[in-house]
Amino acid sequence: MIKAVTFQGQTLAVFGLGRTGITAALSLAKGGADVWAWDDNEAARDAAKAQGVKVKDLSTAKWSEFEALVLSPGVPDTLPNAHWTAKKAKAAGVPIICDIEIFAREVAALPEDQRPKIITITGTNGKSTTTALIGHVLTACGKDAEIGGNIGRGVLDLDKMHAGKHYVIELSSYQLERTQSLRANAAVFLNLSPDHLERHGDMAGYEAAKFRIFDNQTSDDTAVIGVDTKETRRIFSELKAKNGRRIIPISTRKSLGRGVSVMNGKLYCNMNGKCFEICDLSQAKALEGKHNHQNAAAAYAAVQSLDIDPKVIGEAILSFPGLAHRMETIGSAGPVRFVNDSKATNADAALQALKSYKNIFWIAGGVAKAGGIEPLAKHFPNIAKAYLIGEASPEFHKTLAKKKVEHKVSGTLEKAILCATRDAMHSGKSNPIILLSPACASFDQFKNFETRGEAFREQASRIIDLFEEEKNRMSAA
């Protein structure tokens, strides 16, 4: 764990005792701060106590004595409704930060020659895969690298800082809006599409939060930006006009005169008037689809900016094992392949899987985002049949009925998997895919997308095992 020594002797409030809140409270306390840690949920408070957090009721606190409120990224301080702790903090003039800002101050407090390298990643979709891929590449290249932030471990739970350390940090818009001091040696902005608008008010607010990933960069640092949409091309142009850093565009739609691009499945770099092939992504089994090709281009550009051998980077990209819950192949039962894409919590993320496969037996639903699944209509022909679960079932039923897509309201994930398996087995279709790509949040039936994905994996694995047992029995008969 990283001890937050820059807050030594200060009194801080921490609200929200989930993964990041607990590590923030422990990090601050170990660094010598007086911490008031609280959560409105009793079970969360008990879990925090079990990990050594000293819980104090913030409703009884004198807020003028706090140096800062460390507010869980998922808790709003303005829109759609400010949490009561945020109201108290603002009334007392107490700044609201998150664990990423604490981490940033710890880095900045070190002498420059002792600071770790920081690689940050944001975007509406692809953040987690790109983060995991960069971490994998750095490790494969012999670097001391860890990933964290909005994926895996909270940043303050990562191992101790030192020169030569590489932190690869996924950043959500929620985290970025409460971070002021972070400087990234390489900052990646993948893409931008509507999401979390209830929190940021509109697209301008959402974009502004994402754009903060480039704050504090200097001429020694690198910005990596996807340029395949008009929104990100505009962001690229705006950043380029500011100068002050090296900017690397990436594309999967066209060959770039300067930048990193993917053409016909091959990754190319053209940075100094010389274009050369890095690797053939058709050999990267965990990076199927154009969206993953963008992730690979971004990972290459970010790691290459740290002066690492391009050939070694390419080899490491091809060996990437993939990310859990993101187009993750669980296995096959005969011709039927099970794919876990539980992390597709909005339509734009689900689109990536729907356009990457054919003969899909699609499991979708949960808590719908704005716009539902209407944006996916172009790829409905890839769906053999859909199985709807959760709160979104009535809304999705209307959309699919209107588009004449065969579907069934299954209600639960367990029933959906069983029905999809039966139908796929008897469909006679070539290489059928049972795909969990919900296009929804999970909170109606599951704690989070990971829990939903684990439930899918467990049931799919059971079906695969039963199929293998039956096949072996028939062979032995």
What does this structure look like?
By secondary structure, this protein is α/β, with parallel strands linked by helices. It folds into three domains: 5-97, 3-Layer(aba) Sandwich (Rossmann fold), CATH 3.40.50.720; 103-318, UDP-N-acetylmuramoyl-L-alanine:D-glutamate ligase (3-Layer(aba) Sandwich); 328-476, Alpha-Beta Complex (Protein-Tyrosine Phosphatase, Chain A), CATH 3.90.190.20. Helix content is 35%, strand content 21%. The chain is built from 15 helices and 21 strands. It is globular. It starts with 10 loop residues before the first strand and ends with a helix.
CATH third-tier fold name of the largest domain: UDP-N-acetylmuramoyl-L-alanine:D-glutamate ligase
> What is the alpha-carbon Rg in Å?
23 Å
CATH class of the largest domain reads Alpha Beta
Helix vs. strand class: alpha/beta
Q: What oligomeric assembly is this protein in?
A: single chain
Characterize the main sheet.
9 strands, mixed
Low-confidence stretches: none
Fraction of helical residues: 25-40%
Q: Compute the average pLDDT.
A: 95
Number of domains: 3
Q: Tell me the number of strands.
A: 21
Our measurement of the CA-to-CA distance between the termini, rounded to an integer number of angstroms, reads 57 Å
CATH architecture of the largest domain: 3-Layer(aba) Sandwich
Tally of individual helices:
15
Q: What gross morphology would you assign?
A: globular
The largest sheet has its strands arranged as 6-7-5-8-9-10-11-12-13
Classified in CATH, the superfamily of the largest domain is Mur-like, catalytic domain
Q: What is the strand content?
A: 15-25%
